[in-house]
Automatic annotation (TrEMBL):
NCBIfam families cross-referenced by the UniProt entry: PRK05878.1, pyru_phos_dikin
ATP-binding keyword on record: yes
Organism of origin: Elusimicrobium minutum (strain Pei191)
Catalytic residues as annotated in Swiss-Prot or TrEMBL: H501, C881
Residues covered by the PEP-utilising enzyme C-terminal domain: 567-919
Record's protein name: Pyruvate, phosphate dikinase
Domain PEP-utilising enzyme mobile: 468-549
Amino acid sequence: MAKTVKKAAKKAAVKKAVKSMKNVYYFGGGKADGKGSMKELLGGKGANLAEMAGLMKLPVPPGFTITTEVCTYYWDNKKNYPSSLKAEVESNLKKVEKETKKVFGSVDNPLLLSVRSGARASMPGMMETILNIGLTEKTIPGMIKKTGNERFVYDAYRRLIMMYSDVVMEKAAGIEPKDDKGIRKVLDGMLHDVKSKKGVKDDTDLTAEDLKTLCAEFKKTVKNVLGKEFPDNPMLQLWGAIGAVFSSWNGKRAIAYRNIEKIPHEWGTAVNVQAMVFGNMGTDSATGVAFSRNPGNGDSHFYGEYLINAQGEDVVAGIRTPSPMNKWSKNTHSEHLPTLEQVMPKAYKELDGIQKKLEKHFRDMLDIEFTIEQGRLWMLQCRVGKRNGTAAVQMALDMVKEKLISQNEAVLRVTASQLDELLHPAIDPKAEALAKIVGKGLPAGPGGASGKVVFTSEAAMALKAKGEKAILVREETNPEDVEGMRAAEAILTQRGGMTSHAALVARGWGKCCIVGCGELEINLSKKTASIGSVTFKEGDFITLNGTKGFVYLGQLKMLEAGEGNNNLTKFLDMCDKIKRLDVRTNADTPEDAVRAKKFGAKGIGLFRIEHMFYGTNAEKPLFILRKMIVSKTTEERTKAVNELFPFMKKAIKGTIKAMAGFGVTIRLMDPPLHEFIPQQKEVKEQVCKAMGITMEEFDSRAAVLHEVNPMMGHRGVRLGVTYPEITEMQSRAILESAAELIKEGVKAMPEIMVPVVCHENELIDQRAIIERVYKEVVAKTGVKKLPLSVGTMIEIPRAAIMSHKIAEQADFFSFGTNDLTQMTFGFSRDDIGGFMGAYLEKGVLKNDPFQTLDQDGVGYLIKQGVKGGRSTKAKLKIGICGEHGGDAKSVEFCHREGFNYVSCSPFRVPIARLAAAQAVAKEIKTKKK
Ligand code: PEP
Ligand code: MG
C-alpha cells in the first residue's frame, strides 16, 4: 500500500517537473523571476533572495535558483537532471555574467560563484555551502591581477579546496572517512600546523606565500586521501557542487534533522547559485550575521556579529571571536571589541536601514547574512529568524504594540514548545549540545532535571529530606511509588507509554519524566542500572530532558523557568480574547486547582476520584479502599464504603471550593483495581487483621480479582453497576460537599461524570442512583438550588458510535481520548513502550497516538460522537479530558469540531489557551486567503 502511494507521488512529481519546464529562476539587478511566496518551489533562501532582489530592490549579488522540483526529479531518476536543465543553467549564468560584467572561467576577468542549498524550511547547519567556485590554475592569475591581492585569492582558493573536497568529493561521493576523520578535518589540521609553525593565531596572519604553498599541499592531500585530482575546470566544479547539494538532501545529518523536526522527506532542496562577493578582501571588507531583534531575549534592537576580512562561514564556525554590530550586541566575550557601527559607519547605517525595511516588509524578526566588499554592502540571505520562548513572547507583544502585526497574527508567532520553555526549568542548550545522549525514551513530562539516581521511593524521599535532588529510576511506577515520585526531581522508567501511570502523574505535577526507555536495565540488588553499555549506580548524577526524552550522564547546567513572567500573562490574556474554546484542567487536589487557576484554567474537566488514594495523606483512605476492593459481601463492602465517605467528601469539597465559580467535573471512580491490591506482606497482613480474615482467604480473594486484561475488566461504570453502594457513596460525597459549600456562600458547581460507558442502559442505571441521592441531599440540607448535571465520558468506540442514544441520558460528553485511543488502536496504553519507538522510527506511524490525537481514526469516532450527541441535544456540552486536551494540534481539532472546552493537566493549560487562540487565528487566516 505504502509503496503504491509513494510510486504514485513520485510519478506526479516527475510529471510536474517536466510540465512546469522552468527549472531555474534568475534574480539580480533589481529583477527576479520568483518572489517570496514561492518557498515550495524555490526554497526559503531562494524565495527570499528573489523578494529582496526583485521586489525590494536591495543589493543582492545576482544569481539563480534551481528549483526543489529538480531535486525531486534527481532522486526519482537515478541522480539525473531534467534534459533542459543544462541549457537553463547556462543561459542564467550568462545573465549573471552580464550583470557582474565578469565571465565564469575567464582568464582575465573571472566570475566566481557560490553554491548553497535552501529547503522550504530552514535546516541550519544540516545542508551544504561551497564558496569561490571557478578558481582554477588558469583563473587564479587573472583574479590576482584584477584584485591586486594575491593573499586574498589564495585564501579564497584554500577555502574552495576545503569545502569542495569535503562536500562534493567526500560526502556526496558517499565516502565514509575512517575514525570520523574526514578530509575537512585533515585539511583543517594542516592549516592549524602552518599557523603554529609560523607562531600566528589567526588565518588573517598568514601571507600570500604561506597560503599558496598550503593550497598546493591541500591538493596533494586531497589526491592522496580521496584518490582523485581536485577539479581544475570551472564548469566541472559548478556541476559537482550542484549535484552535491542535491545529494546532501539525503545525507545522514539532513535525514536525522528532518526526522526530529518532522520535515517531510519528499520536499527536496533548491540550489542557489550566486555571484561571489568577498568579505575577505582586506580590512575594508567584512561579513556578518544579524537579527532585526535579539533572538535570545526579544529585545527590539538590531543585534548581530561581524568579522573583518573574513568569509561567511568564519562567523558561524567560531574560528575567531566575532565583534558586536553595535552596543546592544555586546556580551562578556566581545565588550572590548569595536562595533561595526564604529568601524564602518556608512555600511552599518545602510544595513540598519535595510533591516528596518525588511522587518516592515516581512512583518517579522529576520535573520540576515551580509557581506561588505571593499566598503560596499551586499545582502546574502534573509529569513524569518529562529528565537527562544522568551524572545518569541516579547516580540509578539512588541510587534502588536508597534502595529506591525495584528493580535491574531501575534498568537501564531509563538509555538507551543516555545511557551512550554517558559513553564519549566530546562537544560542549558549550550551544555546539552556538548553532552552525549546515553539513552532515549518517550518525552512524558517536559522540562529538564538533574539529580542523583535512586531506585526506590524511600530513597527519593530520604534524599529530598536532605535537601538533595533525586531522579527516581524504575522499571515502571505504580501508586505505591507516588510519594517517591512527588519527592523526586524527575522520573525515568523502562516501561510504559505516554498515558502510563508515571506519565500521567508526572505531567499532572509538571514534573520532568521519561518513560519507556527500553534499553534501561535496573539491577536492584546491586543498586546499579545500565543503558546500553553505560552503567551508573545509586547516587550518581544523571540529567533528563523530558521534552525530548533524552538521558545524559552527569549534572548538566539548568536554566530556571520563567516564574512571575509578566509578558507571559499579557500574552495569554491576548490569547483568551481570541479563543472560543474554554480551557479547563485535570486536577484532583485543591493545590492543583489553585495552580491551574493561576495558569488560567476556567474549571475542572476531570477530577479523578481515585487519585485521592495516591500521594500525601493517602495512607488511611488507601487502606480502606483496599478493604473495599477485597470485600466479599455487600455488608463488608458497605462498611468499607461508609468508612471511606468522610475522606472522599473532604477531598472533593476542598477542590470544589478552590474552583469556586467554575464547573468541576468529578468522575466516579475508575480505579485500576489490580494496581490497588497490596503486594507487600505487611500491608496484606494489616488488611487481613482489619477485616478479620486469614492470609489464605486474602490471597484467594485477590486471585478472584485478578484479571487477564484489567484495562477491559471490572472498571469504571461496571463497578457502579455491580456495586451500586459505591456510586451512591460517591454521589453523596459530591452533592453534600456542594450543598454545604453553597450554604457557606461558595458558588459550587459540581458535575458528575460516569466513566467507561458503552451503552445507554449503564447510564440509566447510574443516573437513577445519582438522582435518588440528589433528592435525599436536597431534603437533608435544604439547598434547593443544588445544581445537578450528570454526564458521561465517551472513551469506548461503541459509545462514540451510539452517541445519539447515550446523549438521551447525558447532560454533557467528555471524550476520554486515552482510552478511546487505546481501544481504537488496540494498543495497551501501558505497554506501547515495547514497540512505539520502532513504529515512529520506521515511519509506520508519524506520531505516538497517545500524545497527538489520531485525527483520522480516533478523530473519526469523535466526529461521529459529536454528530450523534448533538443530533439528540443540539446544545450538548462537549469537551475532552484525555491527555490530548493539552496537545496543540489536538486542541485545534477540538476547536474545528465544535467542542465547548478542552481539559488538561495544570501545566498544559497555557499551551491549550495558546492552541485554542491559534485555532481561531488560523481559521481567519484561511478565510482571508
Ligand atoms: C481517558 O481515558 O482519556 C481518561 C481521561 O481517563 P483515564 O486516563 O483516567 O482512563
Ligand atoms: Mg479513561
